[in-house]
């Protein structure tokens, strides 16, 4: 879920210690949904000094109402990404010294646009405002939704780290984390980082609307270290699929529903593992040799475990008599025979 701002007086604020100084190190990440294009500057997250009178860092749309920007008192960056009315965007900004970056991406899968340049937030911030400029400034408000707002000091996240934060419902990087505001409900403006930097509501209350497309109903984890390995999985509810494929032509496929779990390990080239698990069933398969195939359907609380030994499984007893009449029995892959050596 997400918090919806639909009036100039909806903005929420934090005033207190611990806000990051962009000239030292600063990162902010969040999801933004533009509900109505106001065709004007629309502040989504703004650090300010002098109780809102001076801009330190403002992540906002430009005058077009959609173009994403990073605005400061001494310079600004214009992103190549524009918010679209009725759609989610991923947004982030970083700064150290006067070197700033603005990140923007469409929806859950759009490519990340990054623009670098010079910004200058010379003042030390004493207030952060979401959905507008400050607690005392009702201009340039944002008509839309915000979710998963996180802010760091002393830490400038890389693009890969920012993209990981966008896709996670909880912070991935905790070093230097100042605050984590999921904004999953209009009644929850608390800081979930444990730092106690809770937001204060504006003179009118925000509301709750649908949140961004962050996957929360299943987990897919795969490790495929060699080039032609194929992995496929469909996970719903709290199911989990975990796959490890070590050699080039191993194929793994599985569908997991309810609380089922599929685990597969295929160590040699043509081993094939496939399974469907429902309810509380579990399928575990180990196929250690090249041409072994294992497949099974498990339902309810059933469990299947398969171990396949080496292909030549027929071993026969041979009795060998050695001088001076010592006898030894060995196992060899031939018919039973008795050999006497004189």
In short:
Helices cover 2% and strands 47% of the residues.
Question: Can you walk me through this structure?
Answer:
This protein is mainly β and 342 residues long. The protein folds into three domains: 2-209, Jelly Rolls (Sandwich), CATH 2.60.120; 219-307; 312-342, no CATH class. The chain contains one helix and 26 strands. The radius of gyration is 30 Å and the shape is elongated. Residues 216-313 have low confidence and may be disordered.
**Tertiary shape:** elongated
Element string (H = helix, E = strand): EEEEEEEEEEEEHEEEEEEEEEEEEEE
Largest sheet: 8 strands, antiparallel
- In which range does the helix fraction lie? under 10%
CATH hierarchy, class of the largest domain: Mainly Beta
Q: Report the structural category.
A: mainly beta
Per-chain topology:
Layout: E1 2-5, E2 12-15, E3 26-34, E4 42-49, E5 54-61, E6 67-72, E7 75-82, E8 88-96, E9 99-106, E10 113-118, E11 127-130, E12 144-153, H1 159-166, E13 177-181, E14 207-209, E15 219-223, E16 230-235, E17 240-245, E18 251-256, E19 261-266, E20 272-277, E21 282-287, E22 293-298, E23 303-307, E24 316-322, E25 326-332, E26 337-340
Parallel strand pairs: 15-17, 16-18, 17-19, 18-20, 19-21, 20-22, 21-23, 24-26
Antiparallel strand pairs: 1-12, 1-14, 2-11, 3-8, 3-12, 4-5, 4-11, 5-6, 6-7, 8-9, 9-10, 12-13, 24-25
